[in-house]
Design a protein that fits this description.
The structure is a single chain. The protein has about 625 residues and is α/β, with parallel strands linked by helices. Helix content is about 35%, strand content about 15%. The strands form 6 sheets. The protein has a 6-stranded mixed beta sheet with strand order 2-1-3-4-5-6, with helices on one face. It has a 4-stranded parallel beta sheet with strand order 15-16-17-18, with helices on one face. A hairpin with a 5-residue loop joins strand 7 and strand 8 (about 220-225). Helix 5 (about 120-130) crosses helix 17 and helix 6 (about 170-190) runs antiparallel to helix 7 (about 195-200). The protein is globular and about 70 Å long.
């Protein structure tokens, strides 16, 4: 059955039998529907998780609005259907479709996926199959859409390379429009698919895997990638220089179903100067680029007027580091009060949270304050370059408790390099001291009902970080550490302890560090029924291990093996612009528990200077407020 559009008559019977049918109908406030006759290019922005998760992603909001500002281009959305809707689509032989026009994905020119976490990869394959498209790029022909990917996981694109036509590495605000322009020119030329991919490979930040020939070793890690004629040997991460004037969506799509982050999200700056050695985002989004108080206030005002959200969140990797935070909060206070909107700071550095900030925020509706000590002991915090102390934490939470908060979330990691049981004891001791800070506030001056949530995630060594060479802590040892902490937290008043599944963290490490041999594993796992792997109710470790065995790939050899400095990574052709020698020196400093200063206090020369100078020369746009400029 050939379907060009899924109308109400086709869709209604399906929606009667699924959970949350509003996920699949479109028509939300802020969504953009254009006259098909007025556009010459159709782009579908896909998120390989469910609607509630995807609608929380700020990057997708930015690209959706940005592309729809192009008069000739229609940008639509698609999310991974929940298993009940997937079954309904397959039973009715209806292809996966976009929300705006309800057209099958196969009708689009380009279908783009954002890769936020490795455990979404099977959903990407599942969405391609539901769309009736061949999984492998080599099998897509004629007028089938090109499949593009971006996001932080694209820094190691190799596990998905056989499935994806091209990857956009780094910030997409400039590279995606350039890709669309390239596609428009190619489409008018009448050339073949290969011609478009060759042209796209010349765009800064665009990686076309089919133009690189691979040789492979037995472990599943790529031994070498050789570029074909005129293909760049390295693909440099794209950086948006003028962040002050970069596009920001002030009329976001407001979902029918409550999103995970159901709020206005105001990106106050991009990047981080702290240099936490485990943090991939901290290295991938360098250098720091900020927006002014005036621009942020105008964006907040417009966003609240157009959305009706009850909460506004200042987002960044470390919101407390914004140098004009007090001024910004003052500027936003009246705006938020007029719209009955609560102002939130979800990502806080312990040492940058001040009492005046707590008092300014205390006038709004209070949720939880989130702090991330990451490690329990000062030695380990120094090793990971967290740069905060126990005194910082206790002072910060005391300020919050005196200002009316009673709910605090504390994020830690376990399995970090050099970690011991003494470091785990420090996690428990810190939580106790946070509780003590609450009870130290006089009863008549504190909010009732202390809630402390302690979350311990498992460390995953990620590409483009100083810890990429480290082995991951094995699953049995992670489980022992989790049991150890769980026993220590039993019966503690007002404290809840949460931890993550070691198996999913293990697979994250495998796909973060492995090469193209994992593509066969990925496809095999999907055919065995793996999907929504980030959701515990759907995750099956047994199926994954069966897929590895069937493909002859040892995942433990990828995740658990430490690597030498000269190890050849499958992602070495991706230039993140941070010098690998700098990353290795940071690893050595970590093993010595030696800290590195914040970039705001002086340049640490982390950038590959040649790569950065080439970028600046190409764009002729020096960055203001950039310590690396």
């Amino acid at each position: 059955m050939h379907i060009t559009q899924i109308d109400d008559e086709i869709l209604a019977p399906l929606l009667r039998g699924v959970e949350k049918p509003a996920r699949y109908v479109g028509g939300e406030l802020g969504s953009v529907v254009k006259d098909p006759a007025s556009v010459s290019q159709r782009f579908c922005l896909c998120f390989p998780d469910n609607y509630e998760v995807g609608m929380s992603h700020l990057g997708s909001r930015i690209l959706y609005g940005l592309v729809n500002e192009r008069p000739e281009t229609q940008c639509e959305r698609c999310f991974a259907p929940w298993p009940d809707m997937e079954a309904a689509l397959r039973n009715a032989q209806i292809p996966l479709y976009s929300l705006e026009s309800r057209c099958p994905l196969a009708a689009f020119d380009i279908v783009g996926f954002t890769l936020q976490y490795e455990m979404s990869y099977t959903n990407l394959l599942n969405m391609l199959d539901l769309a009736g498209l061949p999984l492998r790029g080599a099998d897509r022909t004629g007028d089938m859409p090109f499949i593009a990917c971006g996001g932080p996981c694209a820094v190691n694109p190799e596990p998905l390379a056989p499935f994806v036509d091209l990857f956009l590495i780094g910030d997409g605000e400039e590279s995606l429009p350039e890709l669309l322009d390239c596609h428009t020119h190619w489409k008018s030329s009448g050339a073949d698919r290969a011609a478009f991919l060759r042209a796209a490979a010349q765009i800064e930040g665009c990686y076309v895997p089919s133009l690189y020939d691979e040789t492979r070793d037995a472990s599943g890690v790529s031994a070498a990638l050789t570029p074909q004629d005129n293909t760049p040997p390295k693909v440099a991460r794209r950086i948006v220089d003028d962040f002050e004037h970069a596009y920001f969506p002030t009329a976001p799509v407001v979902p029918y179903v409550a999103a995970v982050h159901d709020r206005v999200m105001l990106e106050i700056f991009r990047g981080c100067t702290r240099g936490c050695r485990f943090c991939q985002a901290g290295f991938l989004y360098r250098p720091v680029r900020e927006r002014s108080v005036e621009t942020l206030t105008a964006q907040a005002r417009a966003s609240m007027q157009h959305s009706g959200y009850e909460e506004l969140s200042l987002t960044s990797l470390s919101s407390g580091d914004y140098p004009h935070l007090g001024t910004l909060i003052d500027a936003l206070a009246d705006e938020c009060a007029a719209h009955r909107v609560s102002l939130q700071l979800p990502s806080l550095r312990i040492d940058s949270f001040a009492k005046d900030t707590a008092e300014k925020l205390s006038t709004g509706r209070k949720g939880s304050l989130t702090f991330a000590p990451e490690a329990g002991s000062q030695r380990l915090r120094d090793a990971i370059n967290k740069g905060v102390t126990e005194d910082d934490l206790i002072r910060s939470v005391s300020d919050a408790f005196h200002s009316g908060w009673n709910s605090v979330k504390l994020y830690f990691m376990i399995g970090l390099p050099t970690e011991t049981d003494e470091d785990l004891d420090g996690i428990v001791d810190l939580a106790k001291k946070v509780a003590g800070a609450y009870f130290a506030v006089p009863k008549d001056k504190r909010n009732k009902g202390l809630r402390i949530s302690v979350s311990a995630s498992s460390f995953v060594p990620k590409p483009a970080t100083p810890f990429q060479w480290e082995a991951q802590c094995d699953r049995e040892e992670l489980r022992r550490k989790q049991r150890y902490l769980k026993d220590r937290f039993k019966g503690m008043r007002g404290i809840e302890f949460h931890y993550h599944d070691p198996e999913t963290s293990f697979l994250e490490a495998v796909f973060a560090k492995g090469g193209r041999a994992l593509a066969d594993v990925l496809e095999n796992a999907w055919r065995l029924g793996c999907k929504f792997d980030a959701w515990s109710e759907h995750f099956s470790f047994e199926r994954w291990m069966a897929a590895f065995e069937a493909c002859g790939v040892d995942p433990e050899a990828i995740a658990y093996a430490p690597r030498a400095r000269d190890f050849h990574w499958p992602f070495e052709h991706i230039d993140t612009r941070v010098d690998p020698d700098y990353l290795w020196k940071e690893r050595e400093r970590a093993l010595a528990a030696t800290t590195t200063r914040d970039c705001r206090k002086g340049c640490n020369a982390c950038f590959d200077r040649t790569s950065l100078l080439n970028h600046c020369a190409a764009h002729a746009s020096p960055r203001e407020n950039d310590p690396c400029a």
